[in-house]
Amino acid sequence: MHPPHPDSPCVKICVIDDATGLCAGCRRTIEEIMAWPRATVAEKEAILAAIGTRRPTPSS
User: Fold this and answer.
1) Please, where are the H alpha helices in 11-60?
2) Can you say how many angstroms the Cα of residue 24 is from the centroid of all Cα atoms in its chain?
3) Are 51 and 27 in contact (CB under 8 A)?
4) Measuring CA to CA, which residue among 4, 1, 39 is closest to residue 50?
C-alpha cells in the first residue's frame, strides 16, 4: 500500500513576490508549484518541509 499524497499547501493567494521568488500564499517557488501535480510523496514532503523553514513574504 502506498502512503497517501499530502494535500497541496495552496491557499488560493497566488502571487509570486519578485524579491523572494516565493508565492505570497503558500511560500512555494514557481518551480515547486509547477512540480506539485507530478511529485512523489517524498518530493511533496520535502517541499512541505522547505515551506516550514521559510519566512512569510512581506506582502502576507
Assistant:
1) 30-35, 41-52
2) 10
3) yes
4) 39
Q: Which of 39, 59, 57 is nearest to 48 (CA)?
A: 39
Mean pLDDT of 7-20: 95
Please state, in angstroms and rounded to a whole number, the distance separating the CA atoms of residues 26 and 15.
9
Coil, helix or strand for 51? helix
Domain ranges of the chain: 30-55
pTM value? 0.84
Rounded CA separation 60/45 (Å):
23
For CA atoms 26, 32, 35, 39, give the dihedral sign. negative
Q: Is the pLDDT of residue 60 over 70?
A: no
